[in-house]
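Encode chain A's predicted structure.
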Amino acid sequence: MMKRMLMAVAATLAAVVSNAGTYYASPDGTGSGAQGDPCSLMDAVTKVNADQGGEIVLATGTYQEAAEVTGTSTRDDSWNGAHYTYSYYLLGKSGQNYPITIRSATGNPEDVTLLGRREDNKSIRLFRVYGNAIRISGVTMSDCQENTVLHGGGAIFGSSDGSAGPFGGSLIENCIIKDCSSYVGAAIYKVDAVNCTFIGNVTSDSGGAVCRANVSNCTFRANYCSSRSAVSALGGGRAYSAYDSRFLCNTNNGAGNALDSGIVSGLTNVVRCVFADNVIKDNTRHCPGCYNVANVTDSYFTNNISVYGLIAVSSAWYCGRVTGCTFSETNCCAAVKMSATDGSSFPANIVSNCTFSACRNPSYYYGGFIYGDGKTEVVDTTFLNCTNASTTLRGDLCGAMIYKVKSVESCRFVGCSSYSCALVHSAGSLMNCIFTNNTTTCAAWVYGKTGSVVTNCLFAGNTMTGSYTDNGFRDVSELVNCTIAGNTMAKMLPIVSGTVRNSILVGNSPYDCGAVTVDHTFYGTAKSAPTVIGEGSRSGMTVADVKFRGENEKGLPPFALKPKSPARGAGQTLPGQSDQLDLAGHPRVEEGRNVDLGAYAYFPAPFGLMLMLK
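Encoded structure for chain A:
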């Protein structure tokens, strides 16, 4: 879709300029602008403006003007009538859409350099661009500076208002912009960019490289922002997006205590982007990733760092949808934060199909890696070898992996560890989740809230090492069709309160349960006698008694049921379960039977394994 859009834009611009004049320029040109008689770039710009459109082809070399050219001194080039914006080249006319293209003859941006630094060593802006039909391609723009207060675009100041849609207005393509500075948008302002590289640009406010622009397949490296972002919409109505781009080693100083600090902020979409080794240097609430972005999709975050004491650092702070992303962070707290500081939120807050790998949270405060707003849904997301490193006993205030969400569904927690925080805290419900080989010291696996229900979940091979009087589950009203097996605890219990229905609790050390209410549930040892509802429960059960299939049976979940398991049909079918699936995606209820116990219902083994089953 994006490729077709860009191709259509290119074809439109090519068709428009084909009927206009073409002028040739060289660094020392003094001629007419014909192909064999190049003129200067300034003369070529004057010609295409007079023609109300055209093309300028640049010969190889470095272009540097000797004197300052101010253009007009109208309000179009000023701020409040007080500070004039000085630019070398004015392209187009205010209120008009002149189709003008400037390109290098070779197409290689390293062959043509446009310097904003004059021969008297003073740097100014290169281009003031009017309208939505200007295109600049295949050049390097360097050492540019916008000198006036509250103006943007050290290299290019555009006027695209977003009305033409992404990449439908003026744009730069296949360019390098480096070592530029401005108050906002150090490199470009209100001009879209495709296949460009931004290096070493500096801003004193927002947009260390780009402000109010769409970017696609661009690289942002070592840009510096003293207050807000490397790419920022700056209150542009969230009309801008970033696609297929890389944000590497950028720095945000966070001066001025700005609340919308990030490497990227205020955009509609961030799609297939990479954020690596970015740094936020302040001590307030800023993030080395995406801030206030409606949709973050298929993106990768790694080794982004913030100096934030014990408060939250976020790679995706206050975002609406975070989908298909990978987070591999050395130090992060609330890697995805869904709520704003003012308590507002996007209409649909969803984290889905994401992976958090080897993330480390140094703080006890806020959600470890996902901090919701109470309405956030977390779906099909994996937490692999993640760590909450805080030794402060504040397990009642945070979730080591997830905090304050509406629901957690089809998620996997594998090899994670936490000292003081529950793995999941303040979740309304958990469904179809797997918790295996996790370690907690002074906190529960799941710390719910009033009415929390855990359904179709597996807890196996987890360890609780501390003597803090907590349990596997706190403030959970019901566990339904769960399997809790082979877990090791110190003085804690897997179950402390609520009702356990249609579940299996076996092989846990030192006990399988405490003074809990059980309904159609198999359990082994109990520290104190549970309250039993009905006649469907069994005590004294072991792992062998239940007849799980085992890990050595290829293609089968290790805690699925064998054909002769007494847990088959031993449950009480609850309303709605006839249409539900188990943890493996198989029908929860066999025709003609009651519901099976545990997270996995019985289902036939793949052909070839049937003879192995007893």
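The mean pLDDT is 79.
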